[in-house]
Amino acid sequence: MHHITQKDIADKLGVTRITISKALSDSSDISIEMRQNVKRIAQEMGYIPDYTARNLHRNRTNTIGVVVPDVSNSFFSFAIDGIMDAAAKHGYHVMLTVSRESADIEKENIITLLAHRVDGLLIAVSQDTTDVTIYEKVKTRNVPLVFFDRAIKGMGFSSVGIDDKSAAFKLVAYAVRCGYKNIAHLAGSLSTDIGRERHAGYLEALKKHKIPIVEDWIVCGGFDKISGYLGCQKLLRRDRLPDVIFASNDRIAQGAYGAIKEAGLKIPDDIGVIALGHREFAELLSPTLTIIDSSPEFLGQRAMENLVDEMTSSIPQMERQIIIETVLRENHSLLPKR
């Protein structure tokens, strides 16, 4: 199949290829009437511009590379929407890759994105990521990178997310104010900063209110639904059941819902559930989930805006943390004790 080129358009109009190139680029050297005529003919002929060649000549691709752990997690779906909206506003395309919570796939994704010469990277690290070698390579190549939601500290890259420790503390303290003391934790992965910070917030809230920490009520795993389901099953087999389960995210909470209902228990009558998450997903669960809402779409927008700042700044990239405000949403998975 023949691909229409600028020379084909030039031959049809009887002008030079340089004239066509300038007209398609809206050069003021070409009259408005000629520009409009060239664009009309180009569209009729099915011409598709080669932006890659043009942008590489300018040493940029107008493309942002994004790595997320899991697109089935609606948090990241909403974050991607925010990224894409902000990217379009600034004239950037988005190349999306998914690590499936695998450090190896994450590394492969980053190598692929670098090979495509993306102008910058937005990354939420996988729960398996411990080796930072690939990020050192990004740094040596001077490719701007901003972490969002899940970050690696000490690499010199900025991050956008919530204050995980403070958010977890606030949510557990809310359960205490509702009259509960027997609070378990489905902690997700403690190999990640986000997992460790949320667990630290849980522990600090218990200590602050002089509530004993029960090791049997702390279950680690992943950040997905099946981890929540299996972790909750472990809790339900303990000699003493907790009154409330604090899940590190709403996907873990969703899995816990399944295990609780399967055991013939009711939420919140027999056991309450609380989590960090976002409003749209929390309202899909029955009963609606009490959460600290981290507004993923806004988080994605802020991450993209921050990356644009990094890419256009003449100042070398420095590590800084941008904190997104959170909101406590009191729904129906936890009710005040009577």
Structure explained in plain terms:
44% of the residues lie in helices and 16% in strands. The longest helix has 17 residues. The mean pLDDT is 93. The strands form two sheets. It has a six-stranded parallel beta sheet, with helices on both faces. Strands 7-6-8-9-10-12 form a six-stranded mixed beta sheet, with helices on both faces. The protein has three domains: 44 residues, 434 Repressor (Amino-terminal Domain); 129 residues, Rossmann fold (3-Layer(aba) Sandwich), CATH 3.40.50.2300; 131 residues, Response regulator (Rossmann fold, 3-Layer(aba) Sandwich). Helix 8 runs parallel beside helix 9. With 338 residues, the protein is α/β, with parallel strands linked by helices. It has 13 helices and twelve strands. The termini are far apart.
